[in-house]
Each structure stands twice: as structure tokens, then as C-alpha cells.
């Protein structure tokens, strides 16, 4: 399934894109694809949000869900 | 679970002292309030490897940040029985010395207002998807890392 994922902060800066389309059925698969395409992200920390909530373990992606890759926060 | 009302907290550019003053003034009619607590975050001109930070450029995953903030707000208002609470966070490039965060809590008595303000600041720094890019005078930059306190 083709899924869209939004990138923020340092991830957006390093990849040069704010949104990507990739083939994935779950979040682990998505990260694997992502690292194949952008090996330079390998040593960076990030969290995955599905429908604006952080997921801590591998999660099945359903059609139409909003996905985002979030580097460590530094607001305030 | 009750669906929290989503309020916008984001302001383009710095938060002006006049805006802060007006927000304080707007509470004169709320006479049940006995204490306000205010936290203002200011962009610090850190020196890193002999280069000075001249601005921080803030970006956010806005829809998620606003949803998370609504949850924090709802929880804090109930926990401390606040009269009201207002949060503003800047986006875009904020020069060193300018205000980038304004947290304003009000309650009948001081302790609730102060504790609520402090907890809100800690939680929003830890939980809202907002990123700061520290920009130096020579146009180079580094990504900000939040300190524990």
C-alpha cells in the first residue's frame, strides 16, 4: 500500500523533503524503506506518529491514516 | 472521553510585551481570580563554539501540537481548578532577546496558579511536536536540544 509520511525538523532538513510516498503496511516496514532510501537518517532519533499519536511498537497502517516522523522536540 | 476544544496557540513571529499586557488587562472583569502566574520564554543568545545564536527558527507539526496541547490544557485546568489558562508559542524566526513562549494561568489562589503554570511549561516542552533551529551570525545553524529544566 502506498502511504504518505510527513517529515519535520532535522529530518525534513536532511532529506530535503517535507512529505514522502512509500510502500508499507506497518510502521516497522515504513522505517525500513525510509532507511533504504535515506541511509543518513540511520543514527538519528525520531518517533512515529499515526493519526497524531505516538506509537511505541510496530503498528499496522490503515488506508488514509496520517503518518509523521518526528525528531526530538525542542519547543518553548 | 470528553473531546477537548482545540485552541490555536501559535503566533507568527515574536510575542510582543504589549500583547502580554493586553492579555493581563483582559482579566480585570474576572473578579473570582486571586492570582495569575506567567511564564515567558525568551530566546537566549547562547555562544556555541565561539558563535552566537542570533535567532531561533521554530516549526511545528501544528495539528498534532494543538491536539496534544488541548489534552494537557484540559487535564491541568481540572487538576488545579483554574479560572483560566492561555498559552502562546511563536513560530518562525525569533531574534535573541525576544519572547517566544507565553503561559498564563489564573486561579482563585496563588499556589494553584503557580503550580499549574510550572507543570504546563514542563509538559509542553516535553510533549508538543515543536522544533527550534538555532541560527548563528554567519547563517550556519544547529538544532536546539531542550534542557531538563
Largest interface: A-B, 15 and 28 residues
Overall strand count of chain B: 8
Structural class of chain A: alpha+beta
Helix content of chain B: 25-40%
Mean pLDDT of chain A: 94
Name the overall outline of chain A. globular
If helices are DSSP runs of H or I spanning 4 or more residues, what is the number of helices of chain A?
2
Largest beta-sheet details of chain A: 5 strands, mixed
Distance between the termini of chain B: 32 Å
Q: Over the alpha carbons, how many angstroms does the gyration radius of chain A reach? A: 12 Å
H/E element order of chain B: EHEEEHEEHEE
What does this structure look like?
The complex is a heterodimer of chains A (76) and B (149). With 76 residues, chain A is α+β, with helices and mostly antiparallel strands. Chain A is built from two helices and five strands; from the N terminus they run βαβαβββ. Helices cover 24% and strands 29% of the residues of chain A. In chain A, strands 2-1-5-3-4 form a five-stranded mixed sheet. In chain A, a hairpin with a 2-residue loop joins strand 3 and strand 4. The longest helix of chain A is centred in the middle third of the chain and has 11 residues, at 27-37. Chain A is globular, with a radius of gyration of 12 Å. Chain B has three helices and eight strands, in the order E-H-E-E-E-H-E-E-H-E-E. The longest helix of chain B has 19 residues, at 62-80. Chain B is globular and about 50 Å long. At the A-B interface, helix 1 of A face strand 4, helix 2, helix 3 and strand 7 of B.
Amino acid at each position: 500500500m502506498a502511504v504518505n509520511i510527513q517529515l519535520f525538523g532535522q529530518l525534513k532538513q536532511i532529506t530535503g523533503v517535507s512529505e514522502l510516498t512509500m510502500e508499507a503496511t506497518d510502521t516497522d516496514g515504513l522505517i525500513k524503506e525510509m532507511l533504504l532510501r535515506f541511509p543518513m537518517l540511520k543514527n538519528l532519533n525520531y518517533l512515529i506518529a499515526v493519526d497524531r499519536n505516538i506509537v511505541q511498537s510496530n503498528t499496522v497502517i490503515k488506508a488514509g491514516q496520517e503518518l509523521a516522523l518526528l525528531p526530538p522536540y525542542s519547543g518553548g | 472521553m470528553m473531546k477537548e476544544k482545540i485552541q490555536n496557540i501559535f503566533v507568527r513571529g515574536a510575542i510582543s510585551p504589549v500583547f502580554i499586557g493586553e492579555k493581563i488587562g483582559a482579566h480585570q472583569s474576572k473578579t473570582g481570580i486571586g492570582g495569575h502566574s506567567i511564564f515567558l520564554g525568551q530566546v537566549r543568545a547562547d555562544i556555541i563554539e565561539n558563535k552566537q545564536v542570533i535567532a531561533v527558527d521554530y516549526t511545528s507539526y501544528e495539528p498534532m501540537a494543538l491536539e496534544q496541547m488541548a489534552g494537557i490544557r484540559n487535564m491541568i485546568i481540572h487538576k488545579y481548578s483554574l479560572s483560566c489558562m492561555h498559552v502562546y508559542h511563536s513560530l518562525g524566526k525569533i531574534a535573541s532577546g525576544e519572547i517566544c513562549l507565553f503561559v498564563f494561568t489564573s486561579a482563585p489562589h496563588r499556589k494553584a496558579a503557580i503550580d499549574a503554570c510550572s507543570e504546563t511549561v514542563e509538559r509542553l516542552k516535553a510533549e508538543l511536536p515543536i522544533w527550534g533551529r538555532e541560527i548563528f551570525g554567519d547563517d550556519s545553524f544547529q538544532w536546539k536540544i531542550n534542557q531538563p529544566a
